[in-house]
Each structure stands twice: as structure tokens, then as C-alpha cells.
């Protein structure tokens, strides 16, 4: 999308505002499909937690994607978006057995990552096949908060506990139809990914009724010009050959599954904010915008980088700015960034705002959450209205304290 198109959208729908480019989502999806075109059976399940707007889910369904869900509400969203139950896999962590049973009742695929839950579910529902999430004890990911395959992770069943899994399966007579892993996000070294995959193949040999092997995702996308990213094409070439060879050894054509979130939607997203003020201090020039970590928490939470550009003045001379928000705490989006000269009222664009941005937004400071727009077929489509003050009050219940006082006095 061009700066002019984004400025026009901001003028029409106001700021702050999230904008998503449908063509970029499609190109990322097709890139992944093409990278693994040598695999006879490939399934891409979009990780709903990255961006859960129902219009995005419907668009990805039209491309051919299934979905990976982590809560019963995401399962419900998927069904509402038109996905068939068999196109949905439920991969929760730390939820109650009741929530897993509720998802199973809806007919979706179940992925279990806890020995206790596996035994409970297998004892009560041996007729329902389940997938098992394995922890390969491989450290991968760009940040400790998003590295989930290491030995101290809360996710998955340790590969050293395979005998316990086999004992549960034998005792309950349950069927294991899939093996899954997810080592972390922002994986750059594909050799680490391939190493973890070998652990998954070794694990798969213990189970004779598999239908699919899910390799998770976590592919790194570029966050700035010239940034490095996961070489999907090289990974596709190497993993496809190894997967096809494993299927021959296994004696059955299995489905190779992935669950990308960030890879599909991160680069498609733009977060647009207006500059409220330019404030010079003794050491810093601040560009203060009409948003904060209530709308985009990743820089404060993960230390993540979002490229920031001034789309109102794309050809202006560059100066150094620290871009901050309006939250009553430190909420710095970027320190000493080279940005085209900023004046009050300009629109700043934060790139890579498609994944884990709106979905992690809140009403902190009683601020309203932004609107969302989808750029599709060269037109802007509003896919979520901006919140109003009524939304802040919705579900709150006011106590009539005067009446309470009168009742107490009478008693």
C-alpha cells in the first residue's frame, strides 16, 4: 500500500487505526504453499491468536487455510467464520478438562500437552482421537517470552516422558492421530528447526495411527529494510524431502501441517496514529501520538521493533525523534528514530502491525480500542468499528450507594 492510500484511509476513518492489506496476506499464504509443493498433503492452519477479526478468518478460509485455536472462544469464532470442525485444531495450554471436552463436543481436532489431561481425556473419551504436543527441548525464538520449546517451558510433554504417554495410550486404548511441536517465534536458523523436526519424526514412530505431523511455525519476518528472515524456500526444500522420506518409512502418506500466524499477517498490517505534539526537552525530541501501549504493546512487552514512517511527509528531510504515546506510564514506541520531519497533525505509520497488535489491545486508562480496516480489491472495508464510551460502560453494574445507606439506617 502507498503512503497516500494510507493517509486517505486515516482521513476517512480517523486515528488511531489498524489497516490490513489482503493482497499481502494472500501472497504470504501462497509463498508458503509453493515452498512445500513437493509434499502431497499440506495443511496450513492459521494461528487465530495473531489476529482474530472474523473478516480476516473468512478471508483466510477462502484461501484454503484451516485454523489453529488456543481457546474455546477462538473455536467459536472459527465456526462462526464458516470453518468446518475438521478444519480447526484446538491447541490450548493450562485449560480445564471441561474446556477441552467442550471443544471436542464441537467436533474439532484436539491437541493435548499435559500427561494428566491426556489420561483424564483418554479415560473418559477413548473413542475421540487426539494429537499430542511434544516439547523437543530445543531453544528457538527471538525472545525468551516467545521461546516455548526449551526444557523449562510450560508447553508440551517432554520427549523424555514418551514412556508415560505410551502407558496412558495403552491403558486407555485411545488413538493418537497427530504429533505436534512449536519451538518458538522468530526462528531464523532453519537448521535448528530441522533438528527439532528429527526429534518429532523419532517420536512419531511410536504411534501407528497418525494422520498428520504438525511442525508449528514461528517463522521470522523482516521488521526493517534489509532485515533478515526465515528462508522459507530453503526450509521447504529440505523439510519436504525429509518428510516425504519419513512417510515412506512410516508406510503411509501423512499430512504435513503448519500453524503460522505472524508469517501470514504481520507484514500486512499498518498501525496509523496522529501526532498530537512535538515536544523538545534538553536532550530529546518527542513525537507524541494519539495512542499508547494500550493499542500496541509489543515494543514495551517484547522489546519488538516496528519501523515508523511519516506518511504525511514521505519526502521530508530526516530528523531524530523518540516516538511515545499518551499512556500515564512510559510507553515508548521507538527511541531516536530517523524519521522524515514531523509536525503536529502528521500521520505516523507503524509497520508489521498485523500480528499480536490489535489482538493484545486493551482499554487501559479507559481508552477506546481502535477501528480496523481491510484493504481488499483496492478498496477500504471497515471490519471493526471504533469503540465508544458506551463500550467502556457495557457490562459494568453501578451500585446505588444512597439506597444502600437508607436500608442500613432502617435496619
Automatic annotation (TrEMBL):
Binding-site residues, substrate: 298, 302, 329, 356
Cofactor(s) of this protein: pyridoxal 5'-phosphate
Chain ranges of the Orn/DAP/Arg decarboxylase 2 N-terminal domain: 24-266
Pfam families (alphabetical): Orn_Arg_deC_N, Orn_DAP_Arg_deC
Catalytic function, reaction form: meso-2,6-diaminopimelate + H(+) = L-lysine + CO2
MF-aspect GO terms: diaminopimelate decarboxylase activity
UniProt signal peptide: none
Record-listed E.C. numbers: 4.1.1.20
Swiss-Prot/TrEMBL keywords: Amino-acid biosynthesis, Decarboxylase, Lyase, Lysine biosynthesis, Pyridoxal phosphate
Pathway: Amino-acid biosynthesis; L-lysine biosynthesis via DAP pathway; L-lysine from DL-2,6-diaminopimelate: step 1/1
Orn/DAP/Arg decarboxylase 2 C-terminal domain location: 18-354
Residues found modified as N6-(pyridoxal phosphate)lysine: 49
Record-listed pyridoxal 5'-phosphate binding positions: 218, 356
Highest taxon, organism lineage: Bacteria
NCBIfam families with a match to the protein in the record: lysA
PANTHER family from the UniProt entry: DIAMINOPIMELATE DECARBOXYLASE, GROUP IV DECARBOXYLASE
Functional summary from the UniProt entry: Specifically catalyzes the decarboxylation of meso-diaminopimelate (meso-DAP) to L-lysine.
Subunit structure: Homodimer.
Family, per entry: Belongs to the Orn/Lys/Arg decarboxylase class-II family. LysA subfamily.
Protein name, per record: Diaminopimelate decarboxylase
Amino acid at each position: 500500500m502507498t503512503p497516500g492510500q494510507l493517509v486517505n484511509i486515516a482521513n476517512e476513518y480517523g486515528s488511531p487505526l489498524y489497516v490490513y492489506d489482503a493482497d499481502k496476506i494472500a501472497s504470504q499464504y501462497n509463498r508458503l504453499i509453493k515452498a512445500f509443493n513437493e509434499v502431497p498433503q499440506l495443511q496450513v492452519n492459521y494461528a487465530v491468536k495473531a489476529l482474530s477479526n472474523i473478516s480476516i478468518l473468512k478471508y483466510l478460509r477462502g484461501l484454503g487455510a484451516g485454523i489453529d485455536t488456543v481457546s474455546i472462544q477462538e473455536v467459536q469464532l472459527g465456526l462462526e467464520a464458516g470453518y468446518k470442525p475438521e478444519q480447526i485444531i484446538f491447541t490450548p495450554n493450562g485449560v480445564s478438562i471441561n474446556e477441552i471436552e467442550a471443544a471436542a463436543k464441537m467436533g474439532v481436532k484436539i491437541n493435548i500437552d499435559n500427561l494428566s489431561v491426556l489420561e483424564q481425556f483418554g479415560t473418559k473419551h477413548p473413542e475421540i482421537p487426539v494429537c499430542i504436543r511434544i516439547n523437543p527441548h530445543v531453544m528457538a525464538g527471538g525472545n525468551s517470552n516467545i521461546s516455548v520449546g526449551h526444557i523449562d517451558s510450560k508447553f508440551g510433554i517432554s520427549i523424555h516422558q514418551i514412556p508415560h504417554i505410551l502407558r496412558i495410550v495403552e491403558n486407555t486404548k485411545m488413538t493418537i492421530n497427530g504429533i505436534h511441536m512449536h519451538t518458538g517465534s522468530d526462528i531464523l536458523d532453519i537448521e535448528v528447526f530441522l533438528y527439532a523436526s528429527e526429534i518429532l519424526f523419532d517420536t512419531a514412530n511410536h504411534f501407528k495411527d497418525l494422520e498428520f505431523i504438525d511442525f508449528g511455525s514461528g517463522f521470522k519476518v523482516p521488521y526493517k529494510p534489509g532485515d533478515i528472515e526465515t528462508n522459507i524456500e530453503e526450509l521447504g526444500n529440505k523439510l519436504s524431502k525429509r518428510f516425504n522420506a519419513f512417510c515412506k518409512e512410516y508406510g503411509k502418506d501423512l499430512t504435513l501441517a503448519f500453524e503460522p500466524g505472524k508469517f501470514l499477517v504481520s507484514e500486512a498490517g499498518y498501525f496509523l496514529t496522529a501526532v498530537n505534539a512535538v515536544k523538545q526537552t534538553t536532550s530529546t525530541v518527542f513525537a507524541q501520538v494519539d495512542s499508547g501501549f494500550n493499542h500496541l504493546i509489543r515494543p514495551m512487552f517484547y522489546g519488538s521493533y516496528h519501523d515508523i514512517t511519516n506518511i504525511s511527509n514521505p519526502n521530508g528531510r530526516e530528523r531524530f525523534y523518540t516516538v511515545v504515546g499518551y499512556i500515564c506510564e512510559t510507553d515508548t514506541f521507538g527511541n531516536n528514530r530517523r524519521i522524515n520531519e514531523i509536525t503536529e497533525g502528521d500521520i505516523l505509520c507503524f509497520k508489521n502491525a498485523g500480528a499480536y497488535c490489535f489482538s493484545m489491545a486493551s482499554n487501559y486508562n479507559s481508552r477506546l480500542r481502535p477501528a480496523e480496516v481491510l484493504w481488499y480489491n483496492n478498496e477500504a472495508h471497515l471490519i471493526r468499528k471504533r469503540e465508544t464510551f458506551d463500550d467502556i460502560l457495557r457490562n459494568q453494574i453501578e451500585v446505588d450507594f444512597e439506597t444502600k445507606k437508607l436500608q442500613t439506617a432502617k435496619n
